[in-house]
Amino acid sequence: MYQLLEVLGPEHEFSIVDETLRPLPIVDKIIRELKGRVVNNVTLRDFTFGKELQSHVAEMKANSPFRSPRVFEETMHRAVSEISELLDRNFNASLLGSGMHPFLELDEAKIWSHRDRGIYEAMGCIFNLRQHGWLNIQSFQLNLPYSSERDCVKLYNTLSNILPYLPAISAASPVYESRIGEYVDNRLYFYKINQREVPSVTGDVIPEYVASFEEYRRVTIDKYSDELRRLNAHPCIIGKEWLNSRGAILRFDRKAVEIRVMDEQECVKSDVALSCFIRALLRGLLKEDVCLPHGLLVADFNSVIRDGLEAKVLYPGASKARDVCLRFYDVAVRNATEEEGKYLWLVKKRITEGNLSNLIVRDVVKKSQKTSLTEAIRSVYLTLVENLRDNESYS
């Protein structure tokens, strides 16, 4: 058991691509290479490599959560390097970060067909899995521990006041289907609508306030489970806490709150910076009673995923999302540990100079003046492949 905010538990999602950025549905082959047979996850020395719904996307997560951001960065970059070397050597392939694959065609995407495929088949009977919100999303998820119900409820409710504005910093999904999308964070736009057959699974993405575990189960898990029963869903997806698709969910199995609104970034260092920012910010806000109206938070979230840092918001005393992020940054700086503080410069840079989506669009537009849009996108995203391999932030 860990104390509140004691550790950081990261989960990363990366595409497997060839030298032209074509998505390669070979996660099963990689697992067979590592394990000798196809399983869902392979536990290596410091990290676990596993499958996702999409056969071209792999999950990489730490075997144990991190107290130290520096150890987080070193461990997960070492994990990226180990898998990258295997991919280069055996498959002539690479890892790609960011929130969406820029070229993926939905009719060509493959769904995991091995162990646990029954869960995906059950979900496919209820939801249309052939859409970007299922087959073309890559998130950076962060697990934060709690030690008591009281701590967890306060952490969860405080996060509801932070989540709408995080995508202004973490958006990294401006391109899909070889074009620039309408949203700064297209991943979250598709995430919002991918389970509209049962709206209570996702809700408004921004979690509703709760006062207890019992209330959380009743208004969230029980609600979507009842809807699934009415649709004759298979029992394997009913009553499951992991099916909740809000921007933060309670993971009773690991005594943590899991944050889901962040796009995967271009490198581990950037993921660590976001993690340090969130933990330091929460350290400060948990001392206060932050409780803005849920409707305001939902409206701001919808504005932020469309317009990012330039989004007009209803947050008291702020006109744009950038204003809120700068306010949050000041709180984080005041409450950061010395080690966390060493990473916050990158967050400040993203707030002042633009999130990864902004930077990608800037360079794609610039390059497209001299070549085709497709080649401009390819050039920028090949640089992102290098950023992940070398653990260098994109600028």
The H/E string reads EHEEEHEHHEHHEEHHEEHHHHHHH
The gyration radius over C-alpha positions equals 20 Å
CATH topology type: Creatine Kinase, Chain A, domain 2
Number of helices: 15
The assigned structural class equals alpha+beta
Shape, principal axes of CA atoms: globular
Distance between the termini: 39 Å
Mean pLDDT: 97
Describe the structure in your own words.
With 395 residues, the protein is of the alpha+beta class. It has one domain (9-390): Creatine Kinase, Chain A, domain 2 (2-Layer Sandwich), CATH 3.30.590. The chain is 45% helix and 11% strand. The protein has helices spanning 27-35, 69-91, 117-124, 132-135, 149-160, 167-170, 186-193, 213-230, 268-285, 294-307, 321-335, 338-341, 344-353, 356-367, 373-390; strands at 9-17, 41-43, 47-51, 57-62, 94-96, 141-145, 175-176, 179-180, 248-251, 256-259. The strands form two sheets. Strands 1, 2, 3, 4, 5, 6, 9 and 10 form an eight-stranded antiparallel beta sheet that branches. The chain has a two-stranded antiparallel sheet with strand order 7-8. Strand 7 and strand 8 (179-180) form a beta hairpin. Helix 9 packs across helix 11 (321-335) and helix 11 packs antiparallel against helix 13. The longest helix has 23 residues, at 69-91. The radius of gyration is 20 Å and the shape is globular. The relative contact order is 0.14.
